[in-house]
Amino acid sequence: MQKGGEPKEARPAQEQEMPGIEQKMTPKSKTERPELLQKLEGKVALITGGDSGIGGAVARLFAQEGADVAIVYISEHQDAATVKKDVESHGRKCILLPGNIRDEQFCKKAVEDTVQQLGHLDILVNNAATQTEQKSIEDISTEQLKETFETNIFSMFWFTKYALPHLKKGSSIINTTSVTAYRGSPSLLDYSSTKGAIVTFTRSLSAQLVEKGIRVNGVAPGPIWTPLIVGSFEADKVKTFGTDVPMKRAGEPAEVAPCYLFLASDDGSYMAGQILHPNGGEIING
């Protein structure tokens, strides 16, 4: 707001009889967008956890839409190489950045390597996460608690901190939270706590950066069929995973990735501080 409380882009004073005529408005409403063959043409995206699952699907879709991609992952080299091959099949560049995002200096170097090798940075997708089921808070060790928080939320602070000097007006930061941030999870107490923190981080960071023209938003997936599921749940739970949502099935990463594309591209130009909810129809207070 400018002094006196007037919006920065105030329209001239005017009025019409209802229902109003668009052609007589000053200025007229913008109802069309420029046609773009690729929504992310010339953009560079850094995606944590981009080797598989949601991050892998986002990397592939971003490349399809014209972006070069940097993929951060810990040690899943085979999966990462597959994503890299798929990204490059769209004629885009892809670099792989293996390492532990619990290490602040690695996060800093990953950002620096992205800018050095791909030229610049426009989109940061903070997506990597870990989870470990425990029946009781008494079973959550201090080491597990630290690992979960350092992986899921500390890394977002670090990547954002070191990416920010390279971002400019029109850039986008997208954080992956979870449906558990809104409804909780008795067996994923530490994980769901970090996901709640990510919602608040997203909203607060958006308020801090919106005047710089950098949009910050998030995505809160429900049950999505990813390697994290088979790696963290027992076989019987995996068998029925996702059947408790209204759609009665788990979602696929490819069904979630378009949320990230929308928030990263000009299609989401009026979205800031918001969370999208691809969760199979569960109504939450998001």
From TrEMBL:
Q: Which family does it belong to?
A: Belongs to the short-chain dehydrogenases/reductases (SDR) family.
Query: Which keywords, in A-to-Z order, does the entry hold?
Result: Oxidoreductase
Cross-referenced PROSITE patterns, in alphabetical order? Answer: ADH_SHORT
Q: Which GO terms describe its molecular function?
A: oxidoreductase activity, acting on CH-OH group of donors
- Asked if Membrane is a keyword of the record, the answer is no
Which stretch is the leader sequence?
A: none
What is the species listed in this Swiss-Prot or TrEMBL entry?
Paraflavisolibacter caeni
Tell me the organism's taxonomic lineage: Bacteria, Pseudomonadati, Bacteroidota, Chitinophagia, Chitinophagales
Is Heme there in the keyword field? no
Q: What is this protein called?
A: SDR family oxidoreductase
Superkingdom of origin = Bacteria
Q: Where is the composition biased (Basic and acidic residues)?
A: 1-14
Pfam families, A to Z: adh_short_C2
**Region span, Disordered:** 1-33
